[in-house]
Design a protein that fits this description.
Strand order of the largest sheet: 2-1-3-4-6-5-7-8
Distance between the termini: 41 Å
Shape: globular
Number of strands: 8
Structural class: alpha/beta
Bound molecules: thiamine diphosphate, iron/sulfur cluster, magnesium ion
Helix content: 25-40%
Radius of gyration: 18 Å
CATH architecture: 3-Layer(aba) Sandwich
Largest sheet: 8 strands, mixed
CATH superfamily: Thiamin diphosphate (ThDP)-binding fold, Pyr/PP domains
Number of helices: 11
Order of helices and strands: HEHEHEHHEHEHEHHEEHH
Length: about 280
């Protein structure tokens, strides 16, 4: 575990020149997660921005083994790869990681995810949540928040509440659940390190600010990520064998060491909430 960002390894597994948009929160999170996971890692990625980010064969910005899989199969493909490594007595102690977007997790990949969690397969499953189907043009997903404008909710914003994937995963009684954000890279790095050391199914949720999809200036990715935590829209925590522990800024807010911010600034910096009035 590290205490500050200067302790991060200089070894990069995500090289410069990814195909992500400027200011992409996913690229920042992926870079730090890969530093924690290290070279002996196999990442299973379905159709999503992470596929685009890594580039097209034979060129790749990611320096670990990547298996691209069909949209609904992230967890089953990762579980199968882990089983294959075991069956062939592979000695490299690979971390097998499923890395999917919110659409690929809370909607289309949910069945395979639930099955792998129920079997307690020894993999890490990452849901990076940019709160819409971004790769195909910002369509609304189950994880899109209420009132957000998307290309499929263009007039009044989404009329339904955000699906709570953490509660769904909690119900599977898995050994480790954690939430993190590219705005808090040390916390993110440490949570991936911890997940590596735990046997069984690990679920990591990453809250990903997305400049083009949310409609904000790419220079403000970290600011938006911090504001989300500072006003309690996104919370940092771990659930270890059913016990919930708040971390960082969320722990300070919960224990009244720091006041929760008014969410008006968070909403007003994003075009997707331009329909909201300050009172709603
Ligand atoms: C079965 C299937 N349906 C639809 C698609 C088209 N598709 C590719 S990526 C994508 C959006 C993925 O959204 P999400 O999982 O949230 O990841 P993001 O693009 O936001 O990173 C869609 C709909 C597909 N590839 N396969
Ligand atoms: S659409 Fe959003 S999540 Fe996807 S690459 Fe661009 S900034 Fe990143
Ligand atoms: Mg998405």
């Amino acid at each position: 575990m590290i205490k500050q960002i200067t302790e991060l390894s200089e070894q990069e597994y995500l090289l410069c020149g990814t195909r992500a948009c400027s200011g992409c929160g996913l690229a920042i999170a992926y870079r730090h997660a890969l530093k924690a996971l290290g070279k002996n890692t196999i990442i299973v990625i379905p159709a999503c921005c992470a596929t685009v980010l890594q580039g097209m064969y034979p060129v790749s910005s990611a320096q670990v083994t990547i298996v691209n899989t069909a949209f609904e199969t992230t967890a089953s493909a990762a579980a199968g790869i882990y089983a294959g490594l075991q069956a062939t007595k592979n000695k490299h102690n690979f971390n097998v990681v499923g890395w999917a977007g919110d659409g690929g997790t809370v909607d289309i990949g949910l069945q395979a995810l639930s099955a792998a969690a129920e079997r307690n397969d020894n993999i890490i499953y990452v849901c990076y949540d940019n709160e819409a189907y971004m790769n195909t043009g910002t369509q609304r997903s189950g994880a899109t928040p209420e009132n957000a404008l998307t290309t499929t909710t263009p007039l009044f914003g989404k009329q339904h509440k955000k699906k709570d994937i953490i509660k769904i995963m909690e119900a599977h009684n898995i050994p480790y659940i954690a939430t993190c954000s590219p705005a808090y890279p040390v916390d993110l790095y440490n949570k991936f390190l911890k997940a590596k050391s735990i046997q069984g199914f690990k679920f990591i949720y990453i809250f990903i600010p997305c400049p083009p999809g949310w409609g904000f200036n790419p220079a403000q990715t970290i600011k938006i990520g911090k504001l989300a935590a500072e006003c309690g829209i996104f919370e940092l925590f771990e659930i270890i064998n059913g016990e919930k522990i708040y971390n960082g800024i969320t722990e300070r807010i919960k224990n009244n060491k720091q006041p929760k911010k008014n969410p008006v600034e968070y909403y007003s910096l994003q075009m997707r909430f331009k329909n909201l009035s300050k009172n709603k």
